[in-house]
Amino acid sequence: MIKSSRFYDEFNKEAIPHRAALLNFAIRMTGNEDDANDLVQETYLRAFRFFDKFEGGTNCKAWLFRILKNTFINAYRKEKKEPNKVDYEDIENFYENTKPSNTDDSHLEREIFDNLLDDEVSEAIQTLPEDFRTVVILSDIEGFTYDEIADFINCPVGTVRSRLHRARKMLYSKLYTYADDKGYI
Length: 185
Prior knowledge:
Layout: H1 5-14, H2 19-30, H3 33-49, H4 60-81, H5 88-97, H6 106-114, H7 119-127, H8 130-141, H9 146-153, H10 157-182
Helix pairs in contact: 2-3, 2-4, 3-4, 4-9, 7-10, 8-10, 9-10
């Protein structure tokens, strides 16, 4: 199907402004900036393909987040079903190029979030169980409403409120000393 320039303009107006929010959430889901960029790209590809199904006037951001989440889940399931693959050249080169020191990729995630939140806050959020972490990120960082979050994670609004309340209590206990040091208490 050939798309009109109006179609492109509408897609750019509705979907593209949410890229930063999608990328932030994708980084938190994947834990890797490259994987997050791939996930966001795949999300936009699918959103563009099915943009004619999007109902104008509804929440495009929530629609994109749903596509991102489903894409992530589908990729995860597919990856778990596939056997591990190893390229013979990689194995051959591994023994020739082994380095005595380990490389640590966890510093990349820290660098990405350093500008967003203090280390203590980021670490406290990362230590939450996934269901609670997702709700806190979507509500307190991304600004979604309870209804939007419920739709996004496919559960009742009451469950969202309960998880958010419990997650905030967990964060309160983890960050009490931090808040006291910063003068919030």
